[in-house]
Structure formats: structure tokens, C-alpha cells
């Protein structure tokens, strides 16, 4: 079994470069299906397992996908298939993002039902409500969602009950080739939505208002392959910002975009972390003592749920009582039990978690329950006494490129091993964190 072994106690310093954003590149690759002519070339593509999964989905749909170094080229000009099997959807929920493009281009999409996952039930009713409002008939049966439209989708007004990122993206992609104008109200405002809109517009679409609560899309008759560079990953950037803070380090996070990180920057500053905007990124300097704060996850520009577990690791080291409330996903606290195994004084109360810090974290064998939990446990390991071993690295590989190597380059005592290769470790060593 593969695991990451981290020995806490090192202050991180140096520069780390942020990759292209996973949550931007997945919808952008799905959107390449909309081009019936020309190739799309996507730059700054991170080498993540999710990128390989979405590429496999596209190949299944008969698109030609070439993966190069940080670059993906897609030719979707051939006749497309319409079915995305469970094999891929199970691995990665973002596979449902091919529905909008397929409905727009082929008038039909058949996608396996995603099912539940470690952070909550994650229904897609808002995506389907949007497609139906545009004239599609949606049927669910035998583990599949079948959506079909006679003729073309028709533009209309769609109000989302919740500003869902995926629903906004899927409906946007369906609407770009629809007849007439589509207006999505109460839509998501995440930077990844703006990135997708920019790519769609480069393909010849007419999307306005991305980044605000209302998006307006005028349908066009045809889209063309285009070139696009994805935005930097704000969650990876945020994870390294926490790594600097939790070790009392001094790290330049190169490529971090301050405007994408306002809520995280505000909370870190409230905790006593120094953050300096430099020309090509953010310098993060951890204080001697961290202060407790309360956090509530919200849709953008609120505090991102994808930074909740990493921030929880940091709050374990802060002086005082902190409360973290999760409002986006109903079950995103699986990492709490793992933190307790590391001697965290932390408990769940309904949709909130109460942390009494500072905790004297101890290294332990812990299991990553989802992608961000994996990163959070490694972060906690950086500040724990002795050795922390983190297993289930398939989650980490979905969203972080060479995470342990990047941390090691900043001075962390960390390695990734196979059980067979693991050397015998001394039990506990003294550290001063
Ligand atoms: C690939 C990608 O970009 N993933 C991100 C995306 O996921 P994703 O697009 O799945 O997240 P959503 O914004 O859609 O989900 C937010 C909430 O809305 C609910 N919901 C969503 C759709 C729907 O039709 N019905 C419904 O009830 C979900 O169950 C969840 O409770 O945004 C999340 C929220 O910022 C992030 O954590 C994920 O990292
Ligand atoms: C929850 C996440 O991703 P996904 O929606 O792909 O599961 C994430 O990036 O933290």
C-alpha cells in the first residue's frame, strides 16, 4: 500500500509554484465537446488523475484526446457517442459535465447516475431542472440518466435553488448552442465559472455576466476549437498557504491570485498570519502563535468548502476555541475522527465542529477520506510530534500534483513509500511546534 510519511517540526521556506486549477480544467475539457470544427488546445493542465479520467470519458464519446506535458488537445469534430459509463462517473463526479455539451450538440446524453460520495449525497437535480426547462425530457432508470430533446434546446430563464457550480457550468454549456437566450439566475460566481465562460467565448459563444449572480447566454449555431490557458488552482494555493502558516514558515506561493482568495486571506490574517502580495504571488509568513477564529463555508465569494479541512488542521494549532460550520456539503467532516487520532481536541456538533486549541498533535496512522482531507492530514502531520502516515492516496492524486515533492522542496521531512519500500521508523522525536 502506498502512503505518505511525514515527520513534523520543520519550518517551511522557499517558493512553490501553483498548477492550473483542477476545478477549472475539468469543465473546460468537457466543453471542448461543443466544437464541431477545429481542435482545442488547453494549456497549464495539471497532471492529475481526474484529468486522465475526463480524457477517458471524452475518448469513450469518440473525441480524439492527446495529453502532452501540461497540455491537452481535443478534436471533437467526429460523430460523437452519447453515453458516459459508470466506470468513469464513479471515479469522478465531474464526468456529469459532459451532459450539457452532449445535449447541445447531439440532442441526447446518457450518463451513469453519480451516486453518493464521502462528502455528501450530491444530487444533480438543478442540472436536470435546467435541461428540462430548455425543452429536454429527462428519464432516470437502470442507474442512468437519459436526457433527450426533439430538435434543439431552447433558451429560457432558469432560477437555481442553490448557486451550484456544476449546474451553472452544465446549463451554460447546454445553452451556448440553444435557440435564443438563456438566463441563469442565482448562479454560481466561482472564478472557475468565469474561466469556463472565457473558454466558451473563445470558441465563438456569447456568454455574459459570468462571475455575477446572473449569466446571460445567447445561443449560436456552431462552435469551433479554441486555445485556452486555465486559471491557477486557488485551492492548491490555499493549501500551501496553510502549510506555511502551520509550520511558522515563510513561503512564496507563486501564481496565487489574491482576488480568488479573499475569504481565505481574511481568515488567515485574523489568525495572525502575515500575507504580502508580491508581483507573482503571495508570501505567507506564519506567526509564533495562531489565534482561534470561526469559519462558515459558503458559495463564492464566501469561504470555500474545499479549504475547510485544511483550515481545520490549522485551527488545531490555534490558541482558543474555534467553530467551523459547513453549509455547502452535509457530510464533509470525515477527517474529524482522523484528527482525533492525532490527539486533536475536536468534536462535531450538528453541522459545526468545535476545536479547542492549541492541541499537541501526535503522529499517527491516518486514512484520507476524500481529496482535501488527504491534504489536511498531511498538513496536520507537518505540525505533529513524530511520524504521521497517511494512506488512501488515490484521493490526494485526484487534486494535487507531486504534493509531497513540493513540500519536501520547501523543507518538509516527507516521503511517499510503498509498504515494501518502507524503512523502519523511530517512534517519536521531539519537535517544538
Ligand atoms: C469539479 C468541481 O468543480 N468540483 C467543485 C464543485 O462541485 P459541484 O459542482 O458538485 O458542487 P455544487 O456547487 O454543485 O454543490 C454544492 C451543493 O449543492 C448541492 N446540489 C448541487 C447540484 C444540484 O443539482 N443539487 C444540489 O442539491 C450539492 O449537493 C451541494 O450540497 O463545487 C463545489 C462547491 O464549491 C466544490 O466543493 C467542488 O470541488
Ligand atoms: C470536492 C472536490 O472535488 P470534486 O467535486 O471533483 O469531488 C474538491 O476539489 O475538493
Automatic annotation (TrEMBL):
Cross-referenced InterPro entries, in alphabetical order? Enolpyruvate_Tfrase_dom, Enolpyruvate_Tfrase_sf, MurA_subfamily, RNA3'P_cycl/enolpyr_Trfase_a/b, UDP_GlcNAc_COvinyl_MurA
User: Which CDD domains does UniProt cross-reference here?
Assistant: UdpNAET (cd01555)
Keyword Plastid annotated: no
Arranged from A to Z, the UniProt key words for this protein are:
Cell cycle, Cell division, Cell shape, Cell wall biogenesis/degradation, Cytoplasm, Peptidoglycan synthesis, Pyruvate, Transferase
Mark the residues carrying the PTM 2-(S-cysteinyl)pyruvic acid O-phosphothioketal.
Answer: 117
Q: Enolpyruvate transferase domain spans which residues?
A: 6-407
List, from the UniProt record, the residues annotated as the active site of this protein: 117 (proton donor)
GO terms of molecular function:
UDP-N-acetylglucosamine 1-carboxyvinyltransferase activity
Q: Which domain of life is it from?
A: Bacteria
Q: What is its main location?
A: cytoplasm
Reaction(s) catalysed by this chain, per the record, are: phosphoenolpyruvate + UDP-N-acetyl-alpha-D-glucosamine = UDP-N-acetyl-3-O-(1-carboxyvinyl)-alpha-D-glucosamine + phosphate
Query: Which EC class is the enzyme in?
Result: transferase
Q: Decide whether keyword Cell division is in the record.
A: yes
- Pathway field: Cell wall biogenesis; peptidoglycan biosynthesis
HAMAP family cross-referenced by the UniProt entry: MurA
> What family classification does the UniProt entry report for this protein?
Belongs to the EPSP synthase family. MurA subfamily.
Q: Spell out the NCBIfam families in the cross-references.
A: murA (TIGR01072), PRK09369.1 (NF006873), PRK12830.1 (NF009470)
- From the Swiss-Prot or TrEMBL record, give the protein name: UDP-N-acetylglucosamine 1-carboxyvinyltransferase
Query: What organism is the protein native to?
Result: Thermolongibacillus altinsuensis
The lineage is: Bacteria, Bacillati, Bacillota, Bacilli, Bacillales
